TrEMBL record:
Keywords, alphabetical: DNA-binding, Transcription, Transcription regulation
PANTHER family: HTH-TYPE TRANSCRIPTIONAL REGULATOR RUTR, TRANSCRIPTIONAL REGULATORY PROTEIN
Highest rank taxon of the organism: Bacteria
SUPFAM superfamilies referenced in this protein's UniProt entry, alphabetically: Homeodomain-like (SSF46689), Tetracyclin repressor-like, C-terminal domain (SSF48498)
Domain HTH tetR-type: residue ranges: 13-73
Residues annotated to bind DNA: 36-55
A biological process from GO: negative regulation of DNA-templated transcription
Name by which UniProt lists this protein: TetR family transcriptional regulator
Organism: Mangrovihabitans endophyticus
């Protein structure tokens, strides 16, 4: 991503930030495929050629959009509990990715690095500042954290589309009724036992990401710390 420059000649009529915000609004409304220089220029009441004074091409524009989304995180100082901080970060990431669904496949397959994205990395390294794992393991944990949240959100959004207006509780009730019917036929005894209500089970689906994040981060960073201690 190139730094913003001030071209010679007449002053800029707009800023990169203004252009990026307009592009994010289009993508939020109509998806990433709707981002074209012509469409963006039309929304800004200007010509497509004028946008190339600010961005080199569509790829650079998308990098700027991703970095603008990264600016939405609220990054406080480390609490002293690295795992709680990572779980809280994952919760923020989920909220932001749901607000901007188009960013999910980019996080999974085409991560970009910009000023605000670097702020996120710096924040995670600060959270893990006293953790004994090597820096490489911490960076891998950050990449894994982003990927896990993106896949979680992707699955959530796909599930919402499949439910076609049903609430989670309604959809789960319909699925449970079918599974109980199948299990009652006796062909799946292990499934029948698994479906027996467990009072100790975590019932709140909103806790699923927290639990998933904690287990993965403990597995990654706990193992990395143990390996460091052995060296």
């Amino acid at each position: 991503m190139r730094p913003e420059s001030v071209p010679a000649g007449r002053p800029n009529e707009r800023s990169r930030a203004e252009i990026t915000a307009a592009a994010v609004a289009i993508a939020d409304r109509d998806g990433l495929d709707a981002i074209t220089m012509r469409r963006l220029a039309s929304s800004l009441a200007t010509g497509p050629a004028s946008l190339y004074r600010y961005v080199a091409n569509r790829d650079e524009l998308i990098d700027l959009m991703v970095d603008a989304v990264a600016a939405e995180y609220e990054l406080g100082g480390p609490s002293g509990d690295w795992l709680a901080d990572l779980v809280a970060f994952a919760g923020q990431a989920r909220t932001i990715m749901r607000r901007h669904p188009w960013v999910v496949p980019l996080v999974i397959g085409q991560p970009s690095i910009g000023p605000h994205s670097l702020d996120l990395i710096e924040h995670i390294l600060a959270v893990l500042g006293d953790h004994p794992a090597p820096t490489g393991a911490k960076l891998q944990a950050f990449a894994m954290l982003n990927g896990v949240v993106a896949l979680f959100v992707q699955n959530e959004l796909a599930g919402e589309r499949r439910r076609n207006g049903q609430t989670i509780a309604q959809w789960q009730a319909a699925q449970a009724a079918y599974l109980h019917h199948i299990a009652a036929q006796g062909r799946h005894p292990r499934l029948a036992r698994a479906m027996t209500p467990d009072p100790a089970a975590v019932a709140a689906t909103d806790d699923a990401l927290d639990l998933l994040t904690a287990r993965i981060m403990e597995g990654l960073l706990g193992g990395a710390a143990a390996a460091t201690d052995r060296d």
